[in-house]
Automatic annotation (TrEMBL):
Residues 5-60 form the HTH deoR-type domain. This is DeoR family transcriptional regulator. PANTHER family: DEOXYRIBOSE OPERON REPRESSOR, HTH-TYPE TRANSCRIPTIONAL REGULATOR SRLR-RELATED. The keyword DNA-binding applies. Keywords: DNA-binding, Transcription, Transcription regulation. Pfam families: DeoRC (PF00455), HTH_DeoR (PF08220).
Length: 259
């Protein structure tokens, strides 16, 4: 391996340690080499376990024995930023109107939506997860549609092809979608590939698409991109969202609530 390549690989590593989530195009401009050369370098670093490439963006991995993403557990995640998620869930619940057909995605933030539904408002809920199904089953004024299928214990999410087809056939007024990460480069992402089909089906079927995410999710990148930020009509987050992100969202003509 040439000295110039070794020096370039070292620079790439240092750049990623300082700021994870750098695109091939950005590396090419910073290091003054072609994108093809950068892609070869990144492929090598990925083979070595130093990075993970996601849609042309390099994400730093501490070492090859460290998993890129920790195992997700819904119960644990619900306790992280609990106050923020509670406020987001209450705001989301306030947007539901009489006789709405709403879809509630799986996730720790959407869990606080299903816990704060108004018992005085009749609605139909499309439930994609066990915890949401349990919450809405206590709602005496609610009709329930469950997508069903295999239950993923760590996320409480249901999944099967028939369930995805059923969601696509359902006319949904408002879909409340969760996310693991939001990036200007890769847009809206989730951790597991099986989550993507359900989220895309909800997006496809809904008249109004509403993203629920606490401010810690902004700037994070995860393996599976399921939507563009611009595809959402409303984003509900907490009041610690940075001014930079607020400006970005407003410029995209998305209604933003910071609770």
């Amino acid at each position: 391996m040439s000295r110039s390549k070794l020096n370039r690989l070292d620079k790439i590593k240092k750049m990623l340690i300082a700021q994870t989530g750098i695109s091939i195009k950005e590396f090419s401009a910073s290091l003054n080499v072609s994108e093809i050369t950068i892609r070869r370098d990144l492929n090598l670093l990925e083979e070595q376990g130093f990075i993970r490439l996601v849609n042309g963006v390099a994400i730093y991995r501490m070492n090859e024995n460290t998993p890129l993403y920790p195992e997700y557990n819904l119960s644990s995640e619900c306790t992280v930023f609990q106050d923020k998620k509670e406020r987001i869930g209450k705001k989301a619940a306030s947007l539901i109107e009489l006789n709405d057909v709403v879809a509630i995605d799986s996730g720790s933030t959407t869990a606080y939506l299903s816990q704060n539904l108004s018992y005085d408002t009749h609605m139909t809920v499309v439930a994609s997860s066990m915890n949401v199904l349990i919450d809405v089953s206590k709602h005496h004024n609610c009709d329930i549609i469950c997508s069903g299928g295999y239950l993923y214990p760590n996320t409480q999410m249901f999944y099967c092809p028939e369930g995805i087809s059923m969601i696509k056939r359902t006319c949904i007024n408002k879909a409340f979608i969760s996310t693991a990460g939001i990036s200007e480069k890769l847009n809206v992402t989730c951790i597991a590939p099986h989550e993507m089909d359900g989220k895309r089906a909800l997006m496809e079927s809904a008249q109004t698409k509403i993203l629920l995410a606490d401010s810690s999710k902004f700037g994070k990148i995860f393996p599976t991109a399921f939507s563009r930020i611009q595809d959402f009509d409303i984003i509900i987050t907490d009041n610690e969202l940075s001014e930079e992100w607020r400006t970005y969202i407003e410029n995209a003509n998305i209604t933003l609530y910071c609770e």
